[in-house]
Each structure stands twice: as structure tokens, then as C-alpha cells.
Design brief:
The complex is a heterodimer of chains A (259) and B (274). A three-stranded antiparallel beta sheet of chain A has the order 1-3-2. In chain A, helix 5 packs across helix 6. In chain A, 10% of the residues are buried. With 259 residues, chain A is mainly alpha-helical. Chain A folds into three domains: 70 residues, no CATH class; 117 residues; 46 residues, no CATH class. In chain A, a hairpin with a 3-residue loop joins strand 2 and strand 3. Chain B has 274 residues and is mainly α. Chain B contains nine helices and three strands, in the order αααααβααββαα. In chain B, strands 1-3-2 form a three-stranded antiparallel beta sheet. In chain B, a hairpin with a 3-residue loop joins strand 2 and strand 3. In chain B, helix 3 packs across helix 4. Chain B is globular and about 70 Å long. The chains are: A mainly alpha (259), B mainly alpha (274). The interface between A and B is medium-sized, with 29 and 31 residues.
Chain lengths: 259, 274
């Protein structure tokens, strides 16, 4: 029998709306669930301790979080500049005016009209000073100053290395996205067409192999994310032009881990 | 095989020869010169082909080669007395150029966040080409090496005394015996794969292509850059995976080795102006 897509969609939506109905099935599952939840909280607590938060402060914040409004993420504000910096460097890499004869982002003037950093800052950081954005760009390793009056695009991604505040905001957003994907998959029928892809590869190897693995994977991860970004950007532009309905943020995130 | 079928198949294969003819025209090679070159290659290839089919690997006689190729045995003898007149494979350039390119593509200090070699200042600020050369080919004067790479078209000088690497490998630029030889090797590899697939439809070697998309010619540089980046990344991944396999063999078993590789190339065809 062929199942209709409409029925399947309704089942997925119902499961997502009311996940508690059929789970946990019994007291044994409940015990395992609580153990896993405790472990997850433990992981979060020890990660936050590495940012200088002590147990007492964490308990206060946990109470606050449990009772407060969780719909407005603080990370959005903290990462706002980073988001717009990402948009700025995408424009620099996509707009024909900003590319050289080989299709790569060209070195541009800092000041002036037309092709310049000032124009980009005006478009993505209206009202902010060019020097401030240039400083942020250099800190996040997306651009570098060339002489006194020019700037080169150095990276295709914004780097948080050495900035604990941005790293914490980024981690929070990443954990939220991962948990939402996992939760979506947990309540989706066992059907690859409806689940969000999530895969892991790992093994125990000598510590000295890490740099080589990072070198190999960095290029591959960067390539697949760049591809995803181009796909999403083209759909976002098309939907802006057509003015079509409800929007949802979708994306892909990848990282190498070391435990 | 009937004469009609043979002629039809030969006509169908002519498409593969046309780009070669265009190159000959560009090089000023005349039709008789090209024919004599083709005859020489034909005779040498026929000798190897017959030897491969001989149970004991014996070289065939000149008469046998003459029979298969249709070339008189006196010409066969003369042709086989010297190597086929195809340019040799690309010549290896200086060791230092290879080392500095290898480092530019692998040393994290000279890569961007996505693992690609970054544009470098020539010497004014770090990371610079001079520091790259000093670190990896300490006995060589960086300026001399940069000049050599620039002349070979491997690096491009940008504005503001910045340097961009264009290729990971040292290879001849323009039309030279080395570069035409490399073209011949690439074309031969592709034709061998296609021929294998014609003869072995159930054990085909991978040979696939994307659809052809029409794009605005002004976006061509962007698309070329995307293809360059994606294909390079893909080839790097394949090199890593095949290299793992090349180290594996079953102990105690006779080892017959096979060379395996993958080539990616881009095609472009200009259409009518609209």
C-alpha cells in the first residue's frame, strides 16, 4: 500500500507536538532517561566551569534558566556582528565587482565609493565606523590590512579562536542546534526521508596523528560547508524575490573533535 | 568485421582526433608530418600490442608488424630503430621549487582557514614568500626562486607586492615538448579508459560527467574558481583514501601491482551571443 505524504507529515507533526505521550514506556526507561539527562547536565556544567563559572553561580543560573523566558536567545545578540561579518565576506566573495580575473576576492581599498570596504561596511554595518569593523575583521581573521589603505579577504569563515566570549556564544548556539536536530530525529518516524542527517566517525589513534587528521579534514569540511552555503544563499535570494511564506533557518555544521 | 562497419567505427572515433589536429595546426605541423608521426606511433604500438598477446612475451617480427599495420616491412624496421617521436613526459624541474610548493600547500602558517594556500606578501610582512622559502629551502635565494616560479607561470604577482600560487605542481606552461607530452599522456589515459569501457561493458571504469549548464560568461571566473576549489578538495580526499589502500597487501601472496588514479577536467563550450 502506498502511504500518502500528507498522512506522514501529520504523524511527524503530531509526534513533535506531543512527545511525552508514548515515552518513557516504563520505569526502566525512565531511569535510563534520567541518568542520561544527568550526564548531559554534567557535561554542560563542566564545560561552563572551564569559562570560570563556579558550581554555586551555575546553580543560580540554572534556576534562572528553568524559570525564565527561553525564547529569546542571548547568543543572537552576542553573535550579531559575527553574522553580519559573514554576510560581508560572502558579498566580497560573490559579487562580480569584488572579484579578480580568476574569480577570487580582490584586494580592495579601505576608503572611497564603489568597490571598497567602506561600501561593504555601509551595506552590512550601517552607522558603524569602518575602522571598528576592520579591527573586528582582523581579530576574527577574515581580513588583513595591506599597507595603509588596502585590505585583503583572508578567510572564508569567521574565527573565534582566542575570544572566549564569542566561543561561548557560538558553543551555546551549536549545542542548541544539535539538541534540536536530535530531538527532531528522536520523534520522527524511522524514515530517512524525514530525518535530519547526522553522522559521526571516530577511533582511538596516537595523539601525534591529530594535526595530520585536522589538515586532511579542514579542507573537506570547508568545501562541503561552502557548497551548502551557496545552495542556501541561492534559495534565500529566490524566496526573497518571490516573497514566499514561512521561513525556517536550516544549515549544516561540522567539526573535528578530540576526547 | 565488415569493411562498412570498420569504416563507420573509424569515422566515429575521429571525434577524439579532432582536438589533436587543431593542436597540430597551431604548431604548424602539416598533414604529411602528422601522418608520418601517426604511422610511427601505430607501428610502435602494434609491436607492443602483439608482444602482449604472445604467450611467451616475445617481440613480433617486422614482417608480422608489417602485416598488422599495413606498413611496408622496410619502413617498419626503420621506424622501430628509433623511439616514437612523441615528446617525452614532462621534465622534472628543480627540487627546491617542488619543495616550496609542497610546503605552501601544507604548512599551516601559509594556509587560510579552509586549508587552502593563502596569498602571501612577497617579503614586507608575514606570512611572506621569503619566510616560506627560508623555512623550507634554506639554501636558495628566495628572489631567484620566486622569479623562476613566476616565469614558469606557477605563481602570479598581484598588486601590492603579493604573490598567489596557481598550481601545486611544477609543470611546463604554454606549448613546449613537456606540456604537449603531458597533454598526450592525459588524452591517452582518457582514451584508454573509454576503450576499456567499450570492450568491458560489465566491468566499466568510472567515467561520468555533469550536465552542461549555460551560464552568463561574466560569471565564468567564479564558476572556474568553484570547480577548481571543489575538484582540488575532492582529488586530495581521493589521494588520501587510495594512499591508504596502496599500503595494504596480503603477506605470502604473489603481488601484481596496478596503477590506479583519477583525473578531473572541466569542459567549456561557447554558445551563440543572445
Amino acid at each position: 500500500m502506498v502511504k500518502s505524504k500528507g498522512n506522514q507529515k501529520r504523524r511527524v507533526a503530531r509526534a513533535k507536538l506531543d512527545p511525552q505521550v508514548s515515552w518513557p514506556m516504563d520505569s526502566h526507561e525512565r531511569v535510563i532517561r534520567d541518568t542520561l539527562a544527568r550526564e548531559l547536565l554534567g557535561v554542560c556544567i563542566s564545560a561552563l566551569e572551564s569559562y570560570g563559572l563556579n558550581q554555586r553561580r551555575l546553580m543560580e543560573l540554572a534556576e534562572d534558566a528553568a524559570s525564565g523566558d527561553r525564547r529569546t536567545p542571548a547568543t543572537t545578540k552576542a553573535l550579531q556582528d559575527i553574522y553580519w561579518m559573514g554576510e560581508l565576506i560572502s558579498e566580497w566573495a560573490e559579487s562580480a565587482d569584488y572579484l579578480d580575473s580568476e574569480g577570487r576576492p580582490q584586494v580592495i581599498r579601505i576608503k572611497g565609493k564603489g568597490v571598497s570596504l567602506t561600501s561593504l561596511v555601509h551595506k552590512f554595518f550601517d552607522g558603524r565606523s569602518v575602522e571598528e569593523i576592520l579591527k573586528l575583521g582582523c581579530q576574527t581573521q577574515v581580513m588583513e590590512r595591506i599597507g595603509h589603505d588596502k585590505v585583503a579577504r583572508f578567510n572564508s569563515c569567521v574565527m573565534f579562536t582566542g575570544n572566549p566570549l564569542l566561543t561561548l556564544a557560538h558553543s551555546t548556539r551549536s549545542v542548541r542546534r544539535f539538541l534540536r536536530s536530535a530531538s527532531y530525529n528522536a520523534w520522527t518516524p524511522n524514515d530517512p526521508a524525514h530525518s535530519l542527517p547526522e553522522q559521526t566517525a571516530f577511533n582511538a589513534v596516537p595523539e601525534e596523528d591529530l594535526p595530520e587528521f585536522v589538515r586532511v579534514m579542514r579542507e573537506q569540511i570547508s568545501s562541503i560547508l561552502e557548497m551548502g552555503n551557496r545552495w542556501l544563499a541561492s534559495r534565500a535570494t529566490a524566496s526573497r524575490l518571490s516573497g514566499s511564506g514561512k521561513k525556517v533557518t536550516i544549515g549544516i555544521q561540522a567539526f573535528v573533535f578530540r576526547e | 568485421m565488415t569493411e562498412t562497419r570498420k569504416a563507420a567505427l573509424a569515422r566515429a572515433a575521429m571525434g577524439a582526433v579532432e582536438p589533436l589536429v587543431e593542436l597540430f595546426l597551431e604548431l604548424g605541423v602539416t598533414s604529411p608530418e602528422a601522418e608520418s608521426l601517426l604511422r610511427a606511433v601505430f607501428v610502435h604500438k602494434a609491436r607492443n600490442w602483439l608482444a602482449d598477446r604472445n604467450e611467451y612475451g616475445h617481440s613480433p617480427s617486422d614482417v608480422r608488424v608489417a602485416l598488422v599495420t599495413g606498413v611496408h616491412r622496410n619502413f617498419v624496421r626503420r621506424i622501430l630503430s628509433e623511439p616514437p617521436r612523441i615528446a617525452a613526459a614532462r621534465e622534472q624541474r628543480g627540487h627546491s621549487a617542488t619543495r616550496v610548493l609542497e610546503a605552501w600547500y601544507s604548512d599551516p602558517r601559509f594556509l587560510d582557514g579552509s586549508g587552502k594556500p593563502r596569498d602571501l606578501a612577497e617579503r614586507d610582512h608575514e606570512p611572506s614568500f621569503y619566510s616560506l622559502a627560508a623555512a623550507h629551502v634554506p639554501g636558495v635565494t628566495p628572489g631567484v626562486l620566486l622569479d623562476e616560479l613566476r616565469r614558469a607561470g606557477i605563481v602570479q604577482m598581484l598588486t601590492d607586492r603579493r604573490v598567489r600560487v596557481r598550481s601545486r605542481y611544477v609543470r611546463d606552461q604554454g606549448i613546449s615538448p613537456g606540456s604537449v607530452g603531458e597533454m598526450g599522456t592525459r588524452a591517452a589515459e582518457l582514451l584508454q579508459t573509454l576503450r576499456h569501457n567499450l570492450r568491458n561493458p560489465t566491468a566499466r571504469l568510472f567515467c561520468e560527467a555533469t550536465h552542461l549548464f549555460e551560464i552568463d560568461a561574466r560569471r565564468l571566473s567564479v564558476v572556474r574558481n568553484i570547480i577548481n576549489r571543489r575538484a582540488t578538495t575532492f582529488l586530495t580526499a581521493m589521494e588520501n583514501e587510495i594512499a591508504i589502500e596502496s599500503g595494504k597487501s596480503e603477506p605470502g601472496r604473489p603481488r601484481q601491482r596496478v596503477k590506479v588514479g583519477l583525473t578531473v577536467f572541466q569542459t567549456e563550450r561557447y554558445g551563440q551571443r543572445k
